[in-house]
Amino acid sequence: MIKKIHDILLKRYGPQRWWPTTLEGELHPTYHGKTPNNKQRFEIIIGAILTQNTSWKNVEKAIINLNKEKLLSIEKIKSSKKLPSLIKPAGYYNQKAERLKVVADFFLKNKSPTREELLAVKGIGPETADSILLYAFQKPFFVVDAYTKRIFSRIGFRFSSYDELQNLFYSSLPKNIRLYNEYHALLVELAKNHCKTKPICKGCPIYSKCKRLY
């Protein structure tokens, strides 16, 4: 079922080519299959922190602000006094500014962290850690976000934790970075278009699979 859902979504929406990063001041996708350069990698890490408890549209505004001020580097994030005001569109800006400085200090000392090391950093939970590992470092960790939980609970999957749902993907899919990357992005697209808090079921590509037929 999990692989079938991926195939249906890919047919409907096509390749998503996540993670969006800036290029000449505008947001463009980072094409999967290519290793991000150092600037892109750190920008992905920043985005993974900023997207906590907010929409990606708000994160885009914050990242563009940082890019305009040329603050997309570990050293500049650590020393910037303007950081809270620049990331204000992403919400919780004082808290997130503090987290970004902690994360910048961490990555200054850790060039290729493990999942366990990331989870030990203040402000990084499983979803953020897996986003960083998958998109910034191209390691095979499936990202389970709120959209994934909502969609698969409505389909009828039962799980009690992040790890339990993540393991359902691991047991159903080949261990493939590109596949994990694309699937997560497709689920985000489905959630944006149909599987919202108040779902829009008309035209949903996986409506026939839903156990909660609204």
Could you please describe the fold and organization of this structure?
There is one protein chain. The chain is mainly alpha-helical and 214 residues long. The chain folds into two domains: 2-15 and 142-209, no CATH class; 36-136, Endonuclease III, domain 1 (Orthogonal Bundle), CATH 1.10.340.30. It contains eleven helices and two strands; from the N terminus they run αββαααααααααα. It has helices spanning 2-13, 38-50, 56-68, 74-79, 83-86, 93-109, 115-119, 126-136, 146-155, 162-172, 177-193, and strands at 20-23, 26-29. Strand 1 (20-23) and strand 2 (26-29) form a beta hairpin. The chain is globular. It starts with a helix and ends in a 21-residue tail after the last helix.
In short:
With 214 residues, the protein is mostly helical. It has helices at residues 2-13, 38-50, 56-68, 74-79, 83-86, 93-109, 115-119, 126-136, 146-155, 162-172, 177-193, and strands spanning 20-23, 26-29. The protein folds into two domains: 2-15 and 142-209, no CATH class; 36-136, Hypothetical protein, domain 2 (Endonuclease III, domain 1), CATH 1.10.340.30.
